[in-house]
Amino acid sequence: MDLLTPPPDLYGRPRQDRFLRRLTAIQDRYVQALGGPLLRRNPRRPLSRPLPPLQLVVTTRRQLAADVIELQLADPSGGPLPAWQPGAHLRLVLPSGRERHYSLSGDPADRAGYRIAVRRLPEGGGGSVEVHDTLHPGARLTARRPRNGFAFCAEPAVLLLAGGIGITPLLPMAREAQRHGLDWRLVHVGRSADTLPYADELRALDPHRVVLRTDDEHGGVPTGAELLAHAPRGAAVYCCGPAPMLTAVQRALDGGPVGAGGPGASLHFERFGAAPITDGEPFAVRLGADGPTLDVPADRSALDVLREARPDLPYSCHQGFCGTCEVRLLAGPPDHRDRRLTPEQRAAGSLLPCVSRAAEGETLVLDV
Ligand code: FES
Questions:
Q1: Ligand 1, residues 101, 319, 342, 366: which to mutate, most atoms within 8 A of Cβ?
Q2: Is residue 277 part of a domain?
Q3: Is residue 320 assigned to a domain?
Q4: How many CB atoms lie within 10 A of CB 130?
Q5: Contact at 8 Å (CB) between 308 and 285?
Q6: Is the N or C terminus of the chain more exposed, i.e. has fewer CB atoms within 10 Å?
Q7: DSSP structure class, residue 300
Q8: C-alpha 282, offset from chain centre
Q9: Nearest to 92 by CA among 60, 111, 118
Q10: Mean pLDDT of the chain
């Protein structure tokens, strides 16, 4: 891959190119024109019933690092919780109704509880602040069953790269790698030692396989090459952290093999924050049939623009996979860029404005 190629999406899949997106847009319009009747499901095929949400209670809370708390969640009746695999996340419904995703950081073998860690981000969307301010032992909340968009494939050699709170999905992977006798290394980077959660737990796994690397001791953030230098020969790389860290790692990977003289490696990653906008064009959104029209610049999402006028509009992943930001499209030709909606849902007018857009000069009329 060349250096200008943007990172693939959350699931490590390469982005669609412009031609494929146009093709998908044409298909969506065709499907929309056909309308609902032709798209109805085969009546003989049973409808899969959505599983009921989990009821959870906060059992313990502890300070893990500067601005980071850990919560243990359990079934209020003490029953076992649904199984999960390293890399999985939990979608929590907070007391305000906000929905947020948090990676599970505990041990999948422990079915008695789920463990999450949350860094307080005062400049974020309010979810982390709400967790810190309102979730104490005894608090009740609901959650969707764990889902995994960052699966651990247990390759023989792995390098786990964590940026700050990005350690949460990687800690269960390190535990799994140790349990299976894999050749693994983990590098955890952060501003200073007091910002790195789970340092003791990581060292207890195997101190020789864990590197804690802080900016204050090394005079700045690491380069991608510096991080990859810790890789066992030919390792698969799993990375969770802020976008600049992922970009640095990907660019360094594009530049050569991982591990001294080893073969090339696969990169699996999970990103914090919004997906990058590629091939964005300026368009407009109208708030209702008679509402104001807002311009969406090429480098901003429709959701960001909409939230300036409707600050209560919910969102969570900002990457087109959770569905929290779903709105109804009343008119206009959409360029669906999400990974969640089915053709039926798109035909019925659903749109995820955190990633979906329109062609240059078009206007999407939204029921918001
Ligand atoms: S915020 Fe998750 S799909 Fe839009």
A1: 319
A2: no
A3: yes
A4: 17
A5: no
A6: N
A7: S
A8: 26
A9: 118
A10: 85
